[in-house]
Amino acid sequence: MPADFYEEEDFQGQFKGNVFKRILDLMRPHWPWVLGFLICVIIVSILDAYFTYLSKQIVDRGIVNKDINALQQILVNYGILILVQAAAVFGFVFLVGVLGERVRYDLRQSLFNHLQRLSLSYFSRTPVGWIMSRVTNDTERVAELVTWGVLDSTWGVINILTSVIFMLVIDWRLALIVIAILPFLFYVAVQFRKRILEQFRNVRKINSKITASYNENISGVRVVKALGREDENLREFGEQTSAMRKAGYRAAWLSALFLPSVQIISAVGLGGIIWYSGATVGSGTFSIGSLQAFITYMTSMLWPIQDVARVFAEMQRALASAERIFSLVDTTPEILDKPGAFDPGTIRGEIQFEHMYFWYEDELPVIKDLNLTIQHGETIALVGSTGGGKTTIVNLLCRFYEPKRGRILIGGHDYTDLSLQAIQSRIGVVLQTPHLFSGTIRENIAYGRLKASQQDIEASAKLVGADHFIQRFEHGYDEQVGEGGVLLSVGQKQLISLARAVLSNPEIFIMDEATSSVDTLTESMIQKGMEAIMQDRTSIIIAHRLSTIKTAHRILVIEDGQIAEMGNHAELLKLKGKYYNLYTRQFRFEREDAYNIFKENNQANLSAG
Ligand SMILES: Nc1ncnc2c1ncn2[C@@H]1O[C@H](COP(=O)(O)OP(=O)(O)O)[C@@H](O)[C@H]1O
Ligand SMILES: [Mg+2]
């Protein structure tokens, strides 16, 4: 992960090759909207300039010459054109909205789709926050770029162009004065904007650090208090806020200076025009209406010029966003179906691990030369100390990762020849931290089989022993579980995810430490549910508490990515090796635990009584 991973505003370098082209590609499917919108913008800006020209005629032909007919004619034209302009304004605002929505939709859809296809390794490398920011902020910025960005710049350019043309038509010598000061205005505007933006960028950067400090301090409040870090943290925080204040002051000072500077330069231009016209109005070559029109053109040109640097900076940021989005879209999933990958119709066959090696980032093997054959219908338990590689073995079987060396065969086929869908849709996994999605209990159970009937849903809940607590909720199966299931206890979530696994009727059932964070009572309920699922299915159970796996056909002790011991409960106990040690040690702890609870309860009763 690069050091500036989160410093999104910090992008100022060159854009790699074809970002522009790809943004145009985004707009291409919607070209009629783009075209319509450009036409509307052009109509609006040309009419703007033309209205100023009409005002000049009102003054010169109507008022100064006292020509009522001409005045009426001009006013009628004015009225008609105002209607045309109103229609064009309506058109572009509407079209910009539609266009933005379409581009946003396309981007989000393609990102979502792509994210679903990316392999697990991508998500273990990439912080969720980074991905979320791509999907929300960056798509928003790109949508803004292709709509308001295009609008602002088209408008600005056309506004300046039409103003210059009309000025040239009215009086080319005066127009030349204005054109002469334009470069100065541009220069000053760009310089100021650059510096102001830099300060704001600083403010934003410090701000995100401050937010991170808040976040860490609040979520780690216990640790902060326990270690007495309050003063130290406050000092660090103070440094950040004062840096932010300084950058904020500088931005305010520059912003305050900016407008007066632009105004002074344009005042010089206006002064020149007035001086020149003062010399010529009397001689009849330059009218009052022309003077007024010139002043209006000049001021209407100032806006786009002042704005050019802002629009440019926003475009740059949007381009950086686009580049990040494209980099995400360009990440190819590491695990893909091979050409010709097929679905054998079932994965009930024998599972073989053949001389399998695996490592994550560096080439330090996490799994070393694993050989194992699992028969259909067998229950295999994996035990061993943390970090031994149990979860990794299961991840490999699910094909979230693939072996680096050696291979895995399912029903005699190298599983990389099968389609991912064929494997993953037939495996049911229950994890240590069960994941529920916001919605109702019913929706969560039916997550893997959307068309399941109410009877099937209830049957699976009953089978795992979840039905009785679900019935106790006010809304029963329609109870909302909250985001990530926060409204339920871990045990309840675990039972629901078991019911989900039962309902999806997998051919291989996997449980990774699913009982380690629940109390013993819930555990014994889950145990019953598990037994129901494991009937007649290949099952792989990773258990922290060894009492849950006594009935497994085979128990494998995994140490350092290798099988250290293998056999059933009785055989392994007889061996008096690693399993025996694990088991007796845990048994003792559990006894002590139970004794302590008993003691606490008694004391509580005593003091209550
Ligand atoms: N996504 C990952 N990236 C890098 N290393 C990992 C990753 N997941 C696990 N490991 C490492 O692989 C080893 C085995 O981990 P794991 O399979 O989770 O063990 P267990 O489930 O037996 O506790 C550990 O040393 C762990 O640090
Ligand atoms: Mg694990």
What's the layout of helices and strands?
Layout: H1 19-27, H2 31-64, H3 68-117, H4 120-125, H5 128-170, H6 172-219, H7 221-226, H8 230-281, H9 288-330, E1 351-358, E2 367-374, E3 379-383, H10 390-397, E4 405-410, E5 413-414, H11 420-424, E6 427-430, H12 441-445, H13 454-463, H14 467-472, H15 490-503, E7 508-512, H16 520-534, E8 538-542, E9 554-559, E10 562-567, H17 569-575, H18 578-608
Parallel strand pairs: 3-8, 3-9, 6-7, 7-8
Antiparallel strand pairs: 1-2, 1-4, 4-5, 9-10
Bound molecules: adenosine-5'-diphosphate and magnesium ion.
Description:
The protein has helices at residues 19-27, 31-64, 68-117, 120-125, 128-170, 172-219, 221-226, 230-281, 288-330, 390-397, 420-424, 441-445, 454-463, 467-472, 490-503, 520-534, 569-575, 578-608, and strands spanning 351-358, 367-374, 379-383, 405-410, 413-414, 427-430, 508-512, 538-542, 554-559, 562-567. Residues 1-13 have low confidence and may be disordered. α8 (230-281) packs antiparallel against α9 (288-330), α13 crosses α15 (490-503) and α15 (490-503) runs parallel beside α16 (520-534). The chain starts with 18 loop residues before the first helix and ends with a helix. The radius of gyration is 36 Å and the shape is elongated. By secondary structure, the chain is of the alpha/beta class.
Task: Describe the structure using short key phrases.
609 residues; alpha/beta; ABC transporter transmembrane region fold; four-stranded antiparallel sheet; 18 helices; binds adenosine-5'-diphosphate
The CATH fourth-level homologous superfamily of the domain at 16-170 and 311-333: ABC transporter type 1, transmembrane domain
Total E-strand runs: 10
Helix content: 55-70%
Radius of gyration: 36 Å
Basic shape: elongated
> According to CATH, what is the topology of the domain at 16-170 and 311-333?
ABC transporter transmembrane region fold
Mean pLDDT rating:
84
Question: Class by helix and strand content?
Answer: alpha/beta
The residue ranges in which pLDDT falls below 50 over 5 or more consecutive positions are 1-13
Strand order in the largest sheet: 6-7-8-3-9-10
Beta strand %: 5-15%
CATH-derived architecture of the domain at 16-170 and 311-333: Up-down Bundle
Task: List each distinct ligand once.
Answer: adenosine-5'-diphosphate, magnesium ion
Number of helices: 18
Largest sheet: 6 strands, mixed
CATH class membership of the domain at 16-170 and 311-333: Mainly Alpha
Output the helix-strand order.
Answer: HHHHHHHHHEEEHEEHEHHHHEHEEEHH
> How far apart, in Å, are the first and last alpha carbons?
60 Å
